[in-house]
Design goal:
There is one protein chain. The protein has 154 residues and is of the alpha/beta class. The protein is 39% helix and 14% strand. Strand 3, helix 3 (90-100) and strand 4 (109-111) form a beta-alpha-beta unit.
């Protein structure tokens, strides 16, 4: 089983969108039993809150079920529990590394767009930009490429 943790600042926009999109792709491919997919925040600001209404609306428009999730903060011990720990931007990666505090010896921490031709690029936070369409396009592109990478491990 491949275990993936999507991480952003508050766990209400980009990480829950990624979790929902990737889960949908996995389900559509008939691979649900091969994956465990979750999401978390680097901050404590939104703990307990559901996915942002803009995320929910965009997923509805795309015909993708939004995961039933409440924002939570990533824990240090999750480094050992997941195969991929995927941040959305440079600040997420810095904060993930601060939380895990081990220097990422297994190379599990990366950005979602690192699986695409846009390695190193950030996914903009729609909390600030208001552009959930752009975020969705980037998340979808990253999730499609991530799934291809994962299929090589199955």
């Amino acid at each position: 089983m491949i275990k993936i943790l999507f991480v952003c600042h508050g766990n209400i926009c980009r990480s829950t969108m990624s979790q929902s999109v990737f889960q949908h792709m996995v389900d559509q491919a008939g691979l649900s039993d091969e994956f465990y997919i979750d999401s978390a925040a680097t901050s404590r600001e939104e703990i307990g809150n559901p996915p942002h209404h803009g995320t929910q609306r965009k997923l509805r428009q795309a015909g993708i079920p939004c995961v039933h999730h409440r924002a939570r903060q990533m824990r240090k011990d999750e480094y050992d529990q997941f195969d991929y720990i995927i941040g959305m931007d440079t600040w997420n990666i810095r904060n993930i590394n601060r939380i895990i505090g081990n220097g990422d010896p297994d190379g599990k921490v990366c950005k979602l767009l690192d699986f695409t031709d846009r390695r190193g690029a950030d996914i903009a936070d729609p909390w600030y930009t208001g552009n959930f369409d752009e975020t969705y396009r980037d998340v979808k592109e990253g999730c499609e490429a991530l799934l291809q990478d994962c299929l090589l491990r199955l």
